[in-house]
Protein 1
Amino acid sequence: MASLETVQSNKSFGGVITKYKFESKALGGLNAQFNVFVPESDGSTKFPVLWYLAGLTCNEDTGPWKGGFLRDAADAGIALIFPDTSPRGAGVQGEDDDWQFGTGAGFYLNATADKWAKNYRMRAHIIEELPAVIQAATSIPLDFTRQSIFGHSMGGLGALTLYLKHRDLFVSCSAFAPISNPTNAPWGHTAFGGYLKGGVDEGKEYDPTELIKTVGGDAGVHILVDYGDADNFYKQKQLLPENLVAAAEKAGFPTSQVTVRAQPGYDHSYYFISTFAPEHIKFHAKFLKA
Amino acid sequence: MASLETVQSNKSFGGVITKYKFESKALGGLNAQFNVFVPESDGSTKFPVLWYLAGLTCNEDTGPWKGGFLRDAADAGIALIFPDTSPRGAGVQGEDDDWQFGTGAGFYLNATADKWAKNYRMRAHIIEELPAVIQAATSIPLDFTRQSIFGHSMGGLGALTLYLKHRDLFVSCSAFAPISNPTNAPWGHTAFGGYLKGGVDEGKEYDPTELIKTVGGDAGVHILVDYGDADNFYKQKQLLPENLVAAAEKAGFPTSQVTVRAQPGYDHSYYFISTFAPEHIKFHAKFLKA
């Protein structure tokens, strides 16, 4: 098991946010960084875990710097994990050519195309590797039997797909302006066409609208999605939340289980995210602290 | 009067944050940018104004992105103005050589040394120019008869000095980890030695510890300061809040008027600032909404 090196540690809202670094097997032996926020503790409490997955061009600092999440997480007694959005420095040819693909754009999948398969494995990094590495570091008081996940844009896609594929792991999921139907959107075509041997067809595995069809409507899910109707990427049909709504309805989910809200006048920025962050954390607290 | 160009506008917490650009006479004709947050409005309300001055290396976006101020300002019905920290692109030789001086390090003063005097006039920019330019743009509903000011580090210095020099303009002042006695600190020596003809001696004009001596203890002030005792710049004696406390006490101010608090375990970062931001905004609201 790789051991964690502490890069930085800052007190915040009574708790501590720590940036760790380790050699990631899941990402082909590259160094990976992530942040963990742990609320103020009496030393005996283990905190439920809320994962935040950031969007294109972002990294492990974007959420804690700009999301405004720590305040409500501290109040609710919930720990936060902020992974990076891709491997860094893999040296794959072309990985730094386009902000929508490669570095900063890992799409939370396990690549299968030869060129990318060694390093671009953010799903394995998040689902398998980080929980194991964190639990091995016994000083980090997290309770992985209670996990939820949320994210923004590409990270909203990540949160929804990981939740729908791993319902045994997560009790709730929420997203800000998620890429909701990537097999029908330019971003998804670029990503799946590049990372996956099977292209867009294999990409259905990473498409919330496709995945929700495979989960029975009687299964019971807890999903909250907000997007702004002034979001340019929404207008450019990169997000397609309506397709997720239609698929959820067709699969028999009541809107109380898959709640998708258009927020008038809001855009794609963290000014939007931070506005609705308190509600999202309250949503997850309901299930994490049940 | 220079007219304002809208660079960007984002809805946040029910209100709107707008970035403006204009040709700044105070800064020698350079383009200057600033952000204004206006809470949700019925169209007839004019909002009291809270200025936020950022620290070294920062700009007009640092506060709104990382401070977590908008949420509480929206709740309290207070507008926020975020100026830049220096002129940009003045082309003065050496202005980009050192993060502690020149670009991103205007120290909220009016330079008098020949080389800097044309462009480095952040005090005039904030005290005279921005209120005039904003009021001329009649679409921005601010009430400049009610103003307060706060800031971080170099911006805490700026907030304290502008408040103590212009008590007719501001009803309250607060600061996070302010440079409290720059004539006795390395940062102040660099800044005053460079920007001011009269050097460190002229710098007393921009030193909170010196200025508070000139304000009678019976005058009544409203000052709140927080710093972290794990702040490396505090440990390096760049901040010297104890000197401000001693001067205030000697001048006859009760601690209820000059409240300086050491926050155990906190450092110089926005993780610290955002933790105490809600209290600071509540502090200003008490006076702005009185």
Note: Residues 270-288 of chain A form the longest helix (19 residues).
Protein 2
Amino acid sequence: MEQTLLLNQEEIKELVTMKDVVKLVDKTFQDMGNEKTVNPTKVLLDLGETAAYPPYEGFMNAMPAYIGWQDIAGIKWAGGLLGKRKELGLPYITSMILLINPQIGNFVSVMDGAYITNFRTGAQTANALKYIKRGQKSIKVGLYGAGMQGRTQTMALSEVFDIEELIVYDIYREVAEKFKESMESYVRGNIKIAKEPSEVAQNVDAIICVTQSKDSFLKDEWVQPGTVVFPMGSYQEVENEFILNADHIVVDHVEQCLHRGVLKDLNEQGKVTKEHIDATIGELAIGVKTIEDFRNKRVICIPIGTGAMDISVAKFAMDEAKKRKMGKPFDFLGTGEIATPL
Amino acid sequence: MEQTLLLNQEEIKELVTMKDVVKLVDKTFQDMGNEKTVNPTKVLLDLGETAAYPPYEGFMNAMPAYIGWQDIAGIKWAGGLLGKRKELGLPYITSMILLINPQIGNFVSVMDGAYITNFRTGAQTANALKYIKRGQKSIKVGLYGAGMQGRTQTMALSEVFDIEELIVYDIYREVAEKFKESMESYVRGNIKIAKEPSEVAQNVDAIICVTQSKDSFLKDEWVQPGTVVFPMGSYQEVENEFILNADHIVVDHVEQCLHRGVLKDLNEQGKVTKEHIDATIGELAIGVKTIEDFRNKRVICIPIGTGAMDISVAKFAMDEAKKRKMGKPFDFLGTGEIATPL
């Protein structure tokens, strides 16, 4: 039996570029469209993010998936914590990914999942925008939140589009300034820092919300026709009116999107149901659905995040590591048995 | 940040005895009864066990949990595969367990989960039987299936009870004979090998079904008053009549038990619902419910298996490993940073 390949985050950074992740996510969205990916609804372990008990400010999501085009199965266990984790200066996201050979069930790899999570989240947006705005090459971007996710969103978009201009708002001005400094190489035109949230939404092709905000700060009246809004936060960043008035709703995973994040409340009120979802990103990826006349439409697109994307990227990282003889094999059975890889 | 402690199966075998597991499972059932454990319904990734696609004969279950009395969170990803796995002579169960510090979200341990799965499954039955048959010290046991699970069930029961007699049936006579040979030290009286399935159910206190059978082989008419039946298989081992005629239904996790295993079909037909479940094992553990006059009752008890039990045992294994300086630390962040354990 093959041993289990352990990969740490620094190795994964070497093994996987944003260009790779954008391609992998594209193929896996197509796989989902072709119904070759199996991706059950993620299961939440609430550690006190919203539950009254236990008393920690965080959650963990279990996200198993099988990817047809790569013939791999795995799970990501990932979450976010504030509280003591934040006090210690640790990043919000914590994550681990496990891969198995789906034929035999042996564990082929265990790796850190935080870096992959950040990268694939950016790549999901970039690919989804590509499918919605078929043929468009250059874009203007509005960004709420200039943290880690804001960076990976920008990096991913720059792989797929020519970013003409990016306007960013962060509640901390200095965070926005640091963002501008480190992200300028990804943007052809200028990065502007908005003084008011409303400025971000003017005259852009895509609005990306990557904040921890619990307020519905993005107002319906700010959003122009021709704009795709990506509310990526855990909480509702967009006011109900925009969701109800949008021309199209696009999601990555119907069940997940109705029960978590931006659509949750309206779904519970019965105002947004399965019937209001016009397309999945997978359906747009393979072209069985398209967003007609997208230059005049207001679209809300929710890539809430699927384990499929993480498993797909992790499989690539493992294969690359094997090619480059990186990582560390570990024998979780402890029998010392090493046969030829199956 | 503390590194992640890796433990292999051989180390876990050294670190954890059945006596330990029986005690841990007892405490964790009490924790569940006291509502201090958080254990969402497990999420299935079907790799072809029942689904038409993908084409592998197996499944994986994601089982996250938080355990209050130990203040630990974790996930077990575990499944069973036949097909190529079986051809290779590998055990049915494949599993890995991840533990995090729930306050900070850092991964404190990654370990094999197969051994813990087998042991805790036995310990669940033994403890549940103890709660149902309050005060009874010596028992007669009927066992269907003489494989790995049959052994760990017997080992666990022998920690809690004096086993006066055990009668075992296996479709392979030689498997039953091997079982008898290796298990005699756990049984005060004799181990008898049954020629016919019906013999197992006569005049026993508990009937344990640990088979891969898809037939409802256990007949209602075989089961005497005073017997607790444990259908532990993935499929339905007990005929509908017994379930419908039983005096009491006891489960470990209401939602899970209605949607998987022995109650699934009857639940889908609306014949067994939440209202038919008389108690959870946790409620019996803390004594808020009891099975009155158990010597004259026919009880069906379904410990379908909760991640809580695995996480509880895994936490103990990690703590023991630290005490004994076993296991191997691994830095999944790859930053080489090692601070004092938090």
Note: Residues 338-342 of chain B have pLDDT under 50 and may be disordered.
